[in-house]
Specification:
Elements (H helix, E strand, L loop, with lengths): L1 E5 L4 H12 L3 E6 L2 H11 L3 E5 L5 H10 L7 E4 L14 H29 L3 E5 L12 H23 L5 E5 L4 E2 L2 H5 L8 E2 H13 L4 E2 L3 H12 L2 H15 L1
Parallel strand pairs: 1-2, 1-4, 2-3, 4-5, 5-6, 6-9, 7-8
Helix pairs in contact: 1-7, 3-4, 4-5
């Protein structure tokens, strides 16, 4: 069994790699930071191989799939991504375009290409690491929330298509709240509520896709947020999101 993991150099991606190796999987570690990948490979040993790739570039995503076409990959983990905080009129357009390329376009390309491979074999797993943010509009993190909305929506649509076609391929969106990773340092925010640790998040994410969960939302608190969205007006929910995000600055 072999898994391809983007964003494997840190956080949830790194801990997913560790977990899968402990369960007997081989892993292909993908990220931009080659030094971090090599450190992880030294830890994981012969079951890990490294591929330096910047998935924010379309050509590199296509090349990644092409290079790995001969390997019998059974799981794709789309974990690469980042966020940014600030008023929409004040945040960097260049950085937002990079975020969209990483959080959306890379997920779209790799999901499509590897899903086509998995469909031919009628087996495989696709784990898209999203966020509880994917169900809301997020003032002060507008672009990040929007990218995760895309991932949640795409995953849901593909899930239903696979179901209608009677496929044994499984796809899941992992939608946590705060997780203790480097995300906050990159996004220049701080936790407004207690995070779960990255190892716990990794285990929940992998167990969820193995069980065929569509939207895998850890913790009662995060599940309750999604439930509240059903009963309150969108404008009220967005107001609450602004208040919540403001505390993180």
């Amino acid at each position: 069994m072999k898994a391809l993991i983007t964003g494997a150099s840190s956080g949830i991606g790194r801990d997913i790699a560790r977990l899968l190796v402990s369960r007997g999987w081989e892993v292909i570690l993908v990220a931009r930071r080659a030094d971090r990948l090599m450190e992880l490979k030294k830890e994981l040993g012969q079951k890990a191989q490294c591929v330096r790739c910047d998935v924010s570039h379309k050509d590199e995503c296509l090349k990644l799939h092409e290079v790995l076409a001969g390997q019998d990959i059974e799981m794709l983990v789309n974990c690469a991504g980042f966020g940014m905080c600030g008023f929409f009129t004040e945040t960097s357009l260049d950085k937002e375009m990079e975020m969209i390329d990483t959080n959306i376009r890379a997920v779209h390309i790799l999901t499509k290409l590897f899903l086509q491979d998995f469909m031919l074999k009628n087996k495989g797993y696709i784990l898209n690491v999203a966020s509880i943010a994917g169900f809301f509009s997020g003032p002060l993190m507008a672009t990040y929330y929007a990218t995760k909305n895309y991932v949640v929506s795409l995953t849901g649509a593909v899930y239903e298509e696979l179901k209608r076609r009677g496929s044994d391929v499984k796809i899941s969106a992992f939608c946590p709240g705060p997780v203790d990773t480097e995300f906050n340092a990159v996004a220049h925010v701080k936790f407004a509520s207690a995070p779960i640790d990255s190892k716990t998040a990794a285990a929940l994410a992998i167990d969820g896709v193995m069980q065929g969960k569509l939207y895998n939302i850890p913790t009662i608190k995060m599940k309750s947020l999604k439930f509240v969205k059903r009963i309150l007006p969108d404008k009220t929910i967005t107001h609450f999101c602004y208040t919540f995000q403001k505390k993180k600055r």
